[in-house]
Design goal:
Chain A is of the alpha+beta class. Chain A contains 8 helices and 8 strands. Chain A has one domain: 2-Layer Sandwich (Alpha-Beta Plaits). Chain B has about 400 residues and is an all-alpha fold. The chains are: A alpha+beta (about 260), B mainly alpha (about 400).
């Protein structure tokens, strides 16, 4: 499948060094996107966490041990592994901005897309979503709930993009040329340290346009060529080194070594 | 009591004994039906599947039975298209087994997909780029072909065959069976391949991803070859099991040895390409994306022993045994080779399904271990029980084995 390019490229940049691992982004994501809490949520491989914070460490023992936290939304890949495999066109990358959609009423729940995604960004509704008494009244009106049995994932809070476009139209502006900051996902809003930045990477007026050029910016698993629209920044070598596989003796390691010398 | 229903001239055990036997698979079937009820009522959350292992025992089982059910299309192809006449003595069993394998796989899929009511979306909103779309098309069409191939066998039942319409209907289906065998061969070859292609196209999963020819990754061709290299001997094994259970000779050994020779030849071709493929993957592809062969394995559950067992003990060994006439002509050795062969293809389907998604691709991610729970085992065994029930009924009431009378003359 050919990589699709659009005039707008909604891009998230996470400064890993600023992330404290507080999990506010995960909580706000759950609230914004109407993700029901699971009755028995101890098995973290079954819970729905569209935004998930991974803990990384430098592999050393105390007192030299360091940790970093890496929030992982859907990468909205430029060359997604999930889109071409879906048998029923329930996930697409065909909208200006490059957000990978998930069409819940069409998904048959085969989970092939989940198997294809190496980032584990896709989740399945294993059981009926049930909100504890009263909590159902606090559901977000702009995000659809999902039945059990379909795959769901982060969509960069797509309803907020629609809201921002509506606002632009109302103010007589081009809805495809949103000013920086008009469209922000819930995780960004709730991040207490400002670790998350968001915008159109192709628009020079947006902050992320410059951020992705930062020498410390990287994407996860670049070698596989999925072209994620999520970037990370870290000034720590050991964090950047965990962005991709560079096994001893592999071609990738040789290339990396050549680059250093 | 029901002797009027038996195939012409054959002897069967008493009805009470038969019912006693049938109670065993029926009990397992009921257990499975209970589990299926739980799954349909509560959701797939009651199984051991999770967000890392969206595919598990069910998909492994489906892929394995579809490979082992390849005896139906391949034997049909050899019998009706290449006119290898000897195979007429085992073709009925191959067709019934094929039907059971495919219908069983489809029953499993009704539980495995989260929204079974939307299964028809595969036709309504097809994504022509997805290997799974092709699998949906071909499996449903081929299951229909298998039903068409199975119908004449049902209508040839002694009492049903007395009804002129059914007699003529079955006869005309028989006359045109070469056409259905041809369609079946085409459909089955393609979806066996597409099942392999499903894994081969997953470029985010280094264990499964393969380059290939045109739109088809190498796994496409490897899955076809491994299916035709094992399906025929699975038919032989089931036939032999039926012989042991009934105490009768049902198919002459010559035919079984021929099936072994056919599977062995295909298995040799498969192993030749599989070894080249594994070598190229381990030494070429993996290092190109910064991974090593050793990183693809973990502990005992996902250890290298699985690969070596698949390739050597359950690959090269049975391939050599099946193509060597002196070994093949010894029943014990033929059956041993057949068992190894079937285990090998099952391991292959398991590792492509489960190990592929168990491997952490992101460097900071961890290996996770998948274990199916009771609900998955119960429903999987339910399909095995369904197979045992249908085969028992077919054996008792349908003329499945043309040589039965001749081979059991006192």
């Amino acid at each position: 499948m050919q990589q699709m390019e659009f005039d707008t490229k909604w891009t998230m940049v996470v400064d890993v060094d600023k992330c404290t691992g507080c999990g506010a982004c995960m909580v706000s994501c759950q609230a914004e996107n109407n993700i029901a809490p699971m009755k028995e949520g101890s098995n973290k491989l079954k819970t729905l966490t569209w935004m998930l914070v991974y803990e990384l460490n430098n592999g050393k023992e105390f007192p030299n041990r360091e940790v970093a936290y890496l929030p992982r939304p859907c990468m909205q890949c430029g060359h997604p592994a999930c889109v071409p495999v879906c048998p029923v066109v329930a996930t697409t990358k065909d909208e200006e901005g490059g957000i990978v959609s998930q069409i819940y009423p069409r998904c048959i729940g085969c989970r092939y897309c989940m198997a294809a995604c190496p980032y584990h960004a896709r989740y399945f509704g294993w059981l009926d979503p049930v909100w504890p008494g009263g909590m159902d009244k606090a559901l977000s009106p702009s995000t659809s709930t999902r039945p059990r049995g379909v795959v769901e994932k982060c969509n960069f809070c797509h309803s907020r993009l629609l809201d921002a476009r509506q606002r632009a139209r109302a103010e007589g502006m081009d809805p495809n040329k949103l000013p920086d900051g008009w469209y922000q996902p819930a995780c960004l809003e709730s991040c207490p340290t400002g670790a998350i930045s968001f915008g159109d990477a192709k628009n020079p007026e947006h902050k992320v346009h410059e951020l992705i050029k930062n020498p410390n910016a990287f994407r996860i698993l670049e070698s596989i060529g999925m072209e994620p629209q999520v970037y990370y920044i870290s000034r720590r070598d050991w964090v950047r080194e965990q962005s991709d596989n560079v096994a001893p003796g592999s071609h990738a390691e040789n290339h990396a070594a050549e680059g250093k010398h | 009591m029901d002797s009027n229903l038996f195939p012409e001239g054959t002897k069967r055990c008493g009805l009470a004994k038969f019912m006693l036997w049938m109670a065993f698979p029926a009990a397992i079937l009921l257990w499975g039906v209970y589990a299926a009820g739980q799954i349909f009522y509560h959701g797939i959350g009651v199984t051991g599947l999770d967000n890392y292992f969206g595919f598990g025992l069910w998909i492994t089982f489906d892929l394995a039975v579809i490979a082992l059910g390849a005896g139906a299309f391949f034997t049909g192809f050899l019998k009706y298209i290449l006119k290898i006449d000897q195979l007429k003595n085992i073709i009925n069993l191959a067709v019934v087994l094929g039907f059971l394998c495919y219908s069983g796989a489809m029953l499993i899929l009704t539980m495995d997909i989260g929204q079974p009511i939307r299964a028809w979306f595969g036709y309504w909103h097809p994504n022509v780029h997805s290997m799974l779309t092709e699998v949906i098309f071909c499996i449903t069409c081929y299951c229909t072909v298998l039903i068409i191939e199975f119908i004449p066998l049902i209508f040839e039942q002694k009492q049903l065959n007395k009804i002129p319409f059914l007699h003529h209907f079955a006869h005309h289906l028989h006359v045109n069976m070469a056409l259905f065998a041809g369609i079946g061969t085409f459909l089955s070859t393609f979806h066996q391949g597409s099942l392999g292609g499903m894994y081969g196209v997953m470029f985010g999963r280094p264990y499964a991803f393969r380059e290939g020819f045109f739109i088809w990754p190498w796994t496409f061709f490897l899955f076809v070859l491994s299916a035709v290299g094992s399906g025929p001997v699975f038919t032989v094994l089931v036939c032999t099991l039926m012989e042991k259970m009934t105490g009768k000779k049902l198919v002459e050994y010559k035919v079984k040895a021929l099936m072994g020779k056919i599977a062995g030849t295909m298995l040799c071709v498969y192993m030749f390409f599989k070894i080249i493929d594994t070598w190229a993957w381990a030494t070429g592809y993996l290092p190109s994306i910064g991974l090593t062969f050793e990183q693809m394995f973990y502990g005992n559950v996902y250890g290298q022993w699985l690969l070596w067992t698949e390739l050597v003990l359950c690959g090269i060994v049975p391939a050599i045994m099946l193509i060597t006439p002196s070994i093949r002509n010894n029943p014990t050795l033929l059956y041993s080779a057949a068992i190894l062969d079937c285990i090998g293809v099952t391991i292959n389907r398991y590792v492509f399904t489960v190990q592929t998604i168990a491997i952490p691709v992101m460097p900071f991610d961890n290996w996770e271990i998948y274990a199916p729970n009771w609900a998955e085992w119960a429903t999987t065994l339910m399909i095995c029980a369904y197979g045992a029930l249908v085969l028992s009924l077919c054996y008792r009431y349908q003329p499945m084995f043309p040589q039965e009378l001749k081979l059991n003359k006192k």
